[in-house]
Amino acid sequence: MKRKTNKALSVLLSAIMLVSVFTIALPETTSVQAETTGTNFTYSLDGDNAVITGYTGTEKDVIVPDTIDGHKVTGIDEFAFFMNYGITSIALPESVASIGDYAFFHCTMLRDVTFLGDTLSFIGTSAFEGCQYISEITLPDSISEIGERAFLGCTSLKNVTTGKTVDKVGAYAFGYARNTSNWNYERVSMTVNGYSGTAAETYCSEYGVTFNSLGQGNAAPDDSGMLPEEELDIPVLNFTDFNNYTDSDNSTLDIRDVISRNT
């Protein structure tokens, strides 16, 4: 009995330590399981709208629907396609207005991303980080904010086209990758096709990325994400091999619960 008690206490303490070090704030939404949708997508409800939280299918070419169970699909949640190694293309409907943090993080076989329509306004932190085979991205004119490291490590990415209303681009959003030997940021050759006077131009100037002007933009850049490199305190995404950790009851810790940004 004492041995079992000590083992249980050890597992509990380990879990507490993990939670205290690796924390993520997940949205408070009501999850609807895939088997009740009749699709390969899981989603949560934001009011009467659906936010995609996961994909359970095996198709390589994925088309996200604009409605599920009568609910308009308005967003892709954080971690929704996190480290999905199966998908090679993704098409997002016009109804999607936001893509959450780490939504397509390290989808290493993903090559093509299609944005249908001009509704998308926000791309979160590390949303497409590590998608090494994406070679070109054309963002809709509606995009206004591109998060930190959104396309970091997309080493095949040679052209990014942005719209006239981009007013914020986060640190190392594109044009950079990590050196795996020392984890320093290194510039990757690429071109941003965007509009003068927008945050896209400001970002390229600050980070040494080639900028090709398509004309005059409408945005007033927010420089909050444009600090010179030496002034940036860049959070680092930590990987820990806890996704295979199991206790005596064979319960598995979710990898999302042991990933964080250290600030």
Fold topology:
Blueprint: H1 2-21, E1 30-32, H2 34-37, E2 41-46, E3 49-55, E4 61-63, E5 67-68, E6 71-76, E7 89-92, E8 98-99, E9 112-115, E10 122-123, E11 136-138, E12 145-146, E13 159-161, E14 168-169, E15 176-178, E16 185-187, E17 191-196, H3 199-207, E18 210-216, E19 236-237, E20 261-262
Parallel strand pairs: 3-6, 4-7, 6-8, 7-9, 8-10, 10-12, 11-13, 12-14, 13-17, 17-18
Antiparallel strand pairs: 1-2, 2-3, 5-6, 15-16, 19-20
Main attributes of the structure:
disordered C terminus, Leucine-rich repeat, LRR (right-handed beta-alpha superhelix), Surface_bspA-like, 263 residues, 3 helices, alpha/beta, 9-stranded mixed β-sheet, single chain, 20 strands, globular, 4-stranded parallel β-sheet
Percent strand equals: 25-35%
- The CATH superfamily is identified as Ribonuclease Inhibitor
CATH class: Alpha Beta
If you compute it from the alpha carbons, what radius of gyration comes out, rounded to the nearest whole angstrom?
A: 20 Å
* Quaternary organization: single chain
